[in-house]
Write a structure and sequence with these properties.
mainly beta, seven-stranded antiparallel beta sheet, 0% helix, 48% strand, globular
């Protein structure tokens, strides 16, 4: 069995309450909404949806234009809109301010791993993520990554310029904060408008090992400003803790973390300080089996749910077991997935489904958006990919 060691630096640590109260399973109903097709040249990847609750509500899905071969072959960012609850989508169009651009030093920089979300206090759509940096257009340099963001005016549906969060030079432990990014990270917006943004960073430019934190940021509708961060969660092995996602549920905050060999979870009372992470398990004590990909949260029908992929689903032919995409209800006290609640949200169809995103519409409705990946390697290698969207409601 793998042995894990944790280094956690925090200003304070919350204690996990102990309770014997059983969790009441919340039955769910799924509805497949209209998918969005890729093209002969490009796949739509890192697709995520935001609900825009203006006078005439609509949905916007942003997507990375991605080459069908190669790793991190990301280019421009596109968007598509639905005004009928996902029954139809507009023709995808490029976002001019979020294009891949060549810099004076010869690097090409592409915003990516983006996650749009309605920011209620400012009544704007704030998208957060990272940058991909390619020397000469081909050689990726991880140490140049930055926390990127942009803002959409919900009336004009136009995006402002790509901006970057200014972060501290050092963390609480005195290590440098190198290449911070918020790629694929699910955030929480507080009632006062502050943003709890999960961020990962390196402490050594020569070692790609990540520490994950939640940064509390101010946001005035235009500029995202760092205020503070709490626990610095680090796993010294391999790439450490990365692509973290945060959710608030019934007054507590839940934090899931990707690692190369497993997946971890923790919780806390204020959204920035957390208990020592533990490996994700089912309620019978067996490991969940999610590894080397993201997990995200859904809250619907008074239940807390995890979206994930895992081993052991007749899926060894799928790279990193990244399909099917599962949903399971989480016991918020034990931080375990209740096995009997596990269901397939998106079935395996010779494509990866690991890079999903969630969108909360109300307490009784959430969407999961996921772009199929790695089609060039399997039985569907001549197919165009699809962005799949599932509406989740209480049964």
């Amino acid at each position: 069995m793998l042995q894990y060691y944790f280094i956690i630096t925090a200003l304070s640590v919350s204690l996990l309450p102990v309770t014997a109260k059983a969790v009441e399973p919340v039955p769910l109903k799924f509805e497949n909404l209209t998918s969005i097709d890729g093209t002969d040249q490009w796949d739509w990847w890192q697709a995520r949806t935001a609900y825009v609750p203006v006078q005439k509500p609509y949905y916007v899905t942003t997507m990375s234009e991605t080459g069908k071969t190669g790793t991190h072959n990301f280019h421009d960012i596109y968007q598509t809109f639905s005004e009928d609850g996902g029954q139809s989508w507009s023709q995808p169009e490029i976002i001019p301010t979020l294009r891949r651009q060549e810099q004076p030093d010869g690097y090409e920089v592409a915003p990516g791993d983006l996650w749009p979300k309605w920011h209620a206090a400012s009544k704007t759509v704030l998208i957060t993520g990272k940058t991909f940096n390619f020397k000469g257009g081909t050689q990726e340099n991880f140490t140049r990554e930055r926390v990127s963001y942009a803002v959409m005016d919900p009336k004009t549906r136009k995006w402002g310029p790509l901006k970057f969060l200014k972060t501290p030079e050092k963390d609480h432990a005195g290590f440098p904060i190198i290449a911070p990014n918020a790629g694929c990270n699910q955030r929480v917006d507080l009632p006062d408008g502050d943003v709890l943004l999960p961020v990962r960073y390196q402490r050594d430019a020569k070692k790609r090992n990540y520490t994950s934190v939640v940064m509390r940021c101010g946001f005035d509708g235009k500029t995202l400003t760092y205020k503070e961060h709490g626990s610095e969660l680090n796993l010294p092995k391999r790439r450490g803790f990365y692509e973290p996602s945060l959710e608030e549920f019934q007054g507590k905050f839940y934090f899931t973390l990707r690692t190369d060999r497993s997946a971890f979870v923790t919780s806390g009372s204020d959204g920035i300080h957390f208990d020592p992470p533990q490996e994700w398990k089912f309620d019978d004590g067996k490991l969940l089996g999610s590894h080397n990909t993201q997990q995200h949260w859904v809250t619907v029908g008074d239940g807390l749910f995890l979206i994930y992929t895992r081993r052991g689903a007749n899926n060894d032919h799928i790279i990193r077991n990244r399909a099917p995409l599962f949903i399971g209800q989480v016991d918020p006290e034990s931080l375990r997935v209740i096995r009997k609640t596990e269901r397939v949200l998106l079935p395996e169809n010779h494509a990866t489904l690991g890079n999903s995103g969630t969108c909360r519409i109300s307490n009784n409705q959430a969407w999961v958006t996921c772009g199929e990946g790695m089609l060039a390697r399997g039985k569907r290698k001549r197919d165009n990919n699809k962005v799949l969207i599932v509406k989740i409601t209480p049964e």
